[in-house]
Design brief:
It contains eleven helices and ten strands. The longest helix is centred in the first third of the chain and has 13 residues, at 65-77. The protein has three domains: 8-117, 3-Layer(aba) Sandwich (Cobalt-precorrin-4 Transmethylase, domain 1); 121-225, Methyltransferase, Cobalt-precorrin-4 Transmethylase, Domain 2 (2-Layer Sandwich), CATH 3.30.950; 238-281. The protein is of the alpha/beta class and 282 residues long. The strands form two sheets. Strands 3-2-4-1-5 form a five-stranded parallel beta sheet, with helices on both faces. The chain has a five-stranded mixed beta sheet with strand order 6-7-10-8-9. The protein is globular and about 75 Å long. The structure holds S-adenosylmethionine. S-adenosylmethionine (SAM) binds at residues 16-17, 86, 88-90, 93-95, 118-120, 164-166, 190, 192-195, 220-222.
Length: 282
């Protein structure tokens, strides 16, 4: 497909620090679309000016997106190619974008992402913590019960969690994470990724808190938190497990679905549970 194509919304990833991280494809596209929607026209104007790109910029942020979405859909209907960028990283990741993409898709229009840097994945892969399965938490609610509930859930989460936080709130977040996860939980705080003073601070919550209590957190920070230790499987009690399997089957599950269900609840292997169902009771 020719790029940019008329009537297509392009989500374009921009640098999270190092300007060299803007891809040649992103640069070419930003120069060639009919207009660029961005969070802050001054900030993005400087980025584009530095690249020698003159563009029609339109502001698109949290507080005007409801009004802008119909305007941008109309521009797409009129055959314009539109790019959406945020101040840094990927639009739609703790930045405006999600609602515009949903509305564009609902209108039957094409959305294409020109991928680029993202602080969450950059911090995750640099952390040395398990990256096979992870949860993105973004910014936690600022306070109240919702924040406490999210912290409690993070404390129990077995996958690696990635959180964004403003530097002046980092110490408070580390203290709260210690309350919910314990001081020895592994963590890496990635600071100023891709910039001159990039730094990774860990390896535990206690160590990160101690570091940032003496060196005031500055710049942008992403917290990569190791998961909770996997819960111990229940003790193997063949009679009790067989009875639970039979109960699940009586409820309408097939033998293999009953074994799968009980495996996820008990931590035992599905194969062993299935074999148990077909072995005679002692
Ligand atoms: N859309 C962006 C992305 O794709 O990563 C995230 C935007 S969000 C408003 C900004 C937050 O991302 C910052 O408060 C910080 O937690 C994280 N962040 C952005 N740039 C960063 C950097 N260079 N180093 C560490 N964290 C960064």
């Amino acid at each position: 497909m020719k790029e940019p194509s008329p009537g297509v919304l392009y989500l374009v990833g921009t640098p999270i620090g190092h300007r060299g991280d803007l891809s040649p494809r992103a640069q070419q596209l930003l120069a060639a679309v009919d207009r660029v929607a961005c969070e802050d026209t001054r900030h993005s104007g400087l980025l584009l000016h530095g690249l020698g790109i003159q563009q029609k910029l339109i502001s698109f942020h949290q507080h005007n997106q409801q009004q802008r979405i119909p305007e941008l859909l109309q521009a797409l209907d009129d055959g314009e190619a539109v790019a959406l960028i945020s101040d840094a990283g990927l639009p739609g990741i703790s930045d405006p974008g999600e609602e515009l993409v949903a509305a564009t898709r609902a209108a039957g229009r094409t959305v294409i992402c020109i991928p680029g840097p993202c602080a969450a994945t950059t911090a995750l892969v640099s952390s040395g913590l398990p990256s096979g399965r992870f949860c993105f938490e973004g910014f936690l609610p600022a306070k109240g019960r919702e924040r406490q509930q999210r912290l409690a859930a993070i404390g129990q989460e077995e996958r690696t969690s990635v959180l964004y936080e403003a530097p002046h709130r980092l110490l408070q977040l580390l203290k709260e994470l210690i309350e919910h996860c314990g001081a020895e939980r592994p963590v890496q705080v990635a600071r100023e990724l891709t910039k001159r003073h990039e730094q990774h601070v860990g390896p535990t919550l206690a160590a990160a808190l101690q570091h940032f209590s003496t060196c005031k957190p500055q710049g942008e920070c992403t917290v990569v938190l190791g998961g909770a230790p996997a819960s111990e499987p229940e003790a193997w009690d063949a009679d009790a497990l067989r009875a639970q399997l039979q109960q699940l089957q009586a409820g309408g599950l097939s033998a293999s679905d009953a074994a799968r269900e009980l495996a996820s609840r008990s931590g035992h292997s599905r194969r062993e549970l299935y074999a148990l169902l077909h072995s005679a009771a002692d």
